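I am hoping you can look over what I have pasted underneath with an eye to the fold:
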Amino acid sequence: MKKIFAVLISVIILLIQLQISASASTMLTSASVCGENIVATELDGHVILSSEKSASVTPYVSDYTANITINGIYAIEEEPLNIALNTGVNKVNLTVANGSLSETYNFYIVYATGTINVSSPSVEKTGLWAPSINKGENGSNTFYNVIADVSNAEDGKSIHFPIEEIGLMELFIYKPDGNSSIPSGASLKVSAGGKTTDVTDIFFSGECGSWINLGTYYFAADSTDGLSIVAGTNYIFVNSIKLVHTKDTIISKPKITIENNTISGEMTYYKKSVGYPALTLIIAVYDTEGRLSDIASTFGNQYEGGVFDLATETIPLSSGYTYKVFLWDSFLNIIPINAILY
């Protein structure tokens, strides 16, 4: 009898140990994000950098009967689900559930524009442009302005590379073969933070088949920010631009919310190096005489895997007052992101 009792006790202890072991494990074993395999215990709060406009997420689970959702969309175990990305920080929610058991993982995919080729849908073209045999780096597409008579070219052919990111960045342009001299009437101009800089001479004095540094600029994600190229009376060959962050922040444009006659702001950005954020989001209020009357400052900075969530106080709207949104950087002083009039 004692032997039977001892065996029963041993079985009970073993079952308890198995139950504890099972409860300590997770239904999600790992996930492949942008080709990087991340184990479940390290996924929450993880930051992944993406050079593409979309990201592939493939979940792997130990419980094949569990329901899997990624950003609210049902996913299938071991099958990739593609997610469209916005420029900047993208928060991804992956949930695995079965009955009363549920696991939630929040991680971040940061999309920086990086290289933009002239064939990208975001690049705006005016007039007739066509692909050229003068390829860019790694055989990328190059376009040239189509003209029937070189000596009597049409006006108005232009290309605009929009830049949607916010931050201090170096701007490069690839110079393909064929751009040996400046055509009459041709120009390259950089628009950044309300200022325009002519970089025509910099481009044409650079070596063909190389990246030309057009300078360092603070882009504010304004609709006019970017590089504009105007074709002149001869051929000009356009390939790609490239952005290189000079600081360690990749930023998404602030979101402004207006409801119930109030205004507030929020934004998220990614900081590669650990440390207190140098950025502050501000809403400045000016009265009918143009005098500063109030400031909605930032609060609630949260650090998670290099991602900061910033939000401002909520302040009431007043008729005739002007509300301006600023991004304050301790290195760059106060830079206006956009002006909002109400």
User: Anything to note?
Assistant: Residues 136 and 195 are 29 Å apart (CA to CA). The mean pLDDT is 81. The helical segments are 2-24, 40-43, 200-205. The two ends are 87 Å apart (CA to CA).
